[in-house]
Amino acid sequence: MAEYEDKVLHELDGIQEFDNPMPGWLMAIWWGSILFSAAYLVFYALAFGEGSMEAEYRAQTERALTGVQAHYDANPLVPPAPAELLAGAADPLVLDLGAARFARSCASCHGELAQGLIGPNLTDDRWIHGGSVEQIFQSIAKGWPEKGMPPWGRAVPPAELSALVSYVRSLQGSSPPGARPPEGEPFAAEPMPGA
Ligand code: HEC
């Protein structure tokens, strides 16, 4: 026992407590992490203005959006030739593709049979924004966001975008039941190739 005497801090009921300080390296980590957390709090959590997390988030969002816009500028949406869109309206493979996409992305607003629901009837000969295949392409690709029609040009791959136009064109005059009343101006649909 004698050799531990100088180390004994105190003793109670025969239980001795030694003075065993933590090793220096562990204390260094301990103090280091306290200092780090204080600095972190000041620089990030409490920072205002330019240095704040919010400003950093905004700057990153800004950079991402600029990048997306630059990509769009470099890759503009090229409308397919009207003849190609009309030919698609008589091609079962194209129509299958268009019908599948229509069911997924369009039926919720225009109805299963494009008879019109929230959005206008797409099967009659009246159009708010024009009924040529080029105009239908523009309506679908760019949308009419302020009127509730989303833009699909960047959300749908080009082949499906064209197929949608062909599909809508193929529905002309299909007279589905429960159709929404006509809206817009009459447009005599272009003849289909071979018709
Ligand atoms: C969130 C609802 C909504 C969805 C989804 C939607 N549309 Fe529309 N769409 C509308 C509305 C509303 C209008 C009418 C806009 C206006 O009055 O200017 C419209 C207009 C149109 C027009 C122009 C009609 C005209 O008379 O000129 C076309 C074509 C069209 N949509 C096709 C589509 C296709 C194809 C899809 C699927 C890719 C689709 N829409 C998905 C709501 C929608």
Total beta-strand segments: 4
Count of structural domains: 2
The biggest sheet, with number of strands, parallel, antiparallel or mixed sense and barrel status, is: 2 strands, antiparallel
Provide the gyration radius in Å.
35 Å
Terminal CA distance reads 112 Å
Could you state the oligomeric state of the chains shown? Answer: single chain
Explain how this protein is built:
- With 195 residues, the protein is mainly α.
- It has 2 domains: 73 residues, no CATH class; 105 residues, Cytochrome Bc1 Complex, Chain D, domain 2 (Orthogonal Bundle), CATH 1.10.760.10.
- The chain contains 7 helices and 4 strands.
- A two-stranded antiparallel sheet has the order 1-2. Strands 3-4 form a two-stranded antiparallel sheet.
- Helix 3 crosses helix 7.
- The longest helix is centred in the first third of the chain and has 22 residues.
- It is rod-shaped.
- The termini are far apart.
- The model has no long low-confidence stretch (mean pLDDT 91).
- The structure holds heme C.
Give the SSE map.
Elements: E1 8-12, E2 15-18, H1 24-45, H2 53-74, H3 82-88, H4 92-105, H5 107-110, E3 126-127, H6 133-142, H7 158-170, E4 185-186
Helix pairs in contact: 3-7, 4-7, 6-7
Key phrases:
two-stranded antiparallel sheet; 7 helices; binds heme C; Cytochrome Bc1 Complex, Chain D, domain 2; 47% helix; 195 residues; mainly alpha; 2 domains; rod-shaped
Describe the structure concisely.
The protein has 195 residues and is mainly α. The chain has helices at 24-45, 53-74, 82-88, 92-105, 107-110, 133-142, 158-170, and strands spanning 8-12, 15-18, 126-127, 185-186.
